[in-house]
Amino acid sequence: MTFSPITLAGFAYGLGWATTINVVGELYLAELLAIASFPFLRTYAEIAKSEVIRYVFGGYLILLCGLVISDIMNSTPINDSLRGWANPILATLNMLFVASLIRRRPMALKSILLGIVMGKLLANGLPNPNSISSNANALKSQFVPILVPVVLVATIYLSRHRAFLSSIMFLLVGFSLLVSGARSAGLIFIVAGAVLVFGRGIAKFGWVGTIIAICVLAPFAYSGFALYVDYALGGRAGGNSSWQVLLIDNPYNPLDWIVLGRSDTVVGLIAFFDRPLLGHGSWARDVGGVYSELTADINHLQQVHYSDIIRGHSVILTAGVWGGLLGLIGIFLSTFTVVKRFPKILNSRSELRPAMLFLFIDLVWNLLFSPLGHIRTTFPLVIALVAYIEIHNHDSEVRFA
Q1: Which residues contact 211 (CB under 8 A, 6 or more apart)?
Q2: Contact at 8 Å (CB) between 248 and 256?
Q3: How many CA atoms lie within 13 A of 27 on its CB side?
Q4: Which position has the higher pLDDT, 397 or 64?
Q5: What is residue 142's three-state secondary structure?
Q6: CA-to-CA separations, 242 to 38, 233, 301, in angstroms, rounded
Q7: C-beta separation of 358 from 147 below 8 A
Q8: What residues contact residue 368 under an 8 Å CB cut-off, 6+ apart?
Q9: How far is Cα 99 from Cα 47, in angstroms, rounded to an integer?
Q10: pLDDT tens string 70-95
Q11: Could you read off the pLDDT of 263-307 as tens digits, one per residue?
Q12: With 0-12 CB in 10 A as exposed, 13-18 as middle and 19+ as buried, what is 4?
């Protein structure tokens, strides 16, 4: 890796995701770097050159307007309001900072990922093998956040020599995580590996090819899911699967797994339709514990674990729950402009293609099943990469310098 100001800035940015300071809410040191760099980013140039950046910026602006209006109408406490508004504002600053680095030196992605790994190791030390082998939660919280960037960096090097090795690595890591109890990360790796294998053929036919491929591969995917259910029913699956499978009336129905495993997402959908126009305000309060009781009911729990907030656990739904219809429109506009460029990622001949595919699939997963904060933490990387592909037309045989 060649050291340059851009490379060092990327490493520092990745390193900064390991430490937070309390300014109204949690602010990462990486975001402080993005804020401090803002006057020097030539922001107008970044926005003007890329349609992706323009649409994402516009979507975040609409989301912010939705949050402000909702907070005024709901008389949201000022501290909650500021923490809510910080999400689209910091997401924009992070996006512009990363896009600036990637545009000048695409391999800055590698330095960012290595910075993330170093930050995790400095903050938490090496994961305890005994802990992660016996505790799926420790595996997901201590090991996976280090493993993911390490694997992505490895695929960048592998793609220089044998591109198919990246897909093999994704599949092996994915299946290993799946049976160990880290289902979300495992599934994302498996899907990324499968897309790497079939992506070139799919890309030739654009979205039509993508839809056809999904229909053709769906029976095989379901067969794999059924084998996993059998594995879980035998008590061999790690993590929550071993007990969740016993609570599902029909464990061979994947929708039942989603409802139980991502009950907060279901609750978020209900909360949105309770107040679809104006929303519930930033950090929407669960007044009376109604939504906590609903979560307990979905999870078949006898004891209700009350939460002060409505835990939507979905980027899309949380934007709607907090900011109402405007919030939902804003997040849809900002993410749809990225998602619709999926064929461009498939067509890319870049060494970064495996990492881009993983980050793209991770973005789609987080849109559906992860907290709104992901627009600050994980979205900027993939948005910056998609914007770079768009600007430089890397659909042809091109390798990044």
Answers
A1: none
A2: yes
A3: 18
A4: 64
A5: helix
A6: 48, 7, 16
A7: no
A8: 262, 265, 314, 315, 316
A9: 10
A10: 999 999 999 999 999 999 999 999 99
A11: 788 888 899 999 999 999 999 998 888 888 888 887 777 788 888
A12: middle
φ and ψ at residue 75, rounded to 5 degrees: 50, 45
Measured distance CA(330)–CA(102) in Å, rounded: 25
Give bridge partners of residue 285 from the DSSP assignment: 309
Sign of the Cα pseudo-torsion (316, 321, 323, 329, in order): positive
Contact 149, 189 (CB under 8 A): no
CA distance 64 to 84: 9
pLDDT above 90: residue 323: yes
Instruction: Compute the C-alpha angle 342/367/220, nearest 5°.
Output: 60
Amino acid letter for position 13: Y
For residue 243, the model assigns a pLDDT of 61
Q: How far apart are CA 384 and CA 231, in angstroms?
A: 39
Q: Would the pTM of this model clear 0.85, i.e. be above it?
A: yes
If you count them, how many residues does the chain have?
401
Helix 353-369 vs helix 164-180: crossing angle, to nearest 10: 30
Structure tokens at 249: 């009336």
- Which tokens hold the place of 305? 């674990």
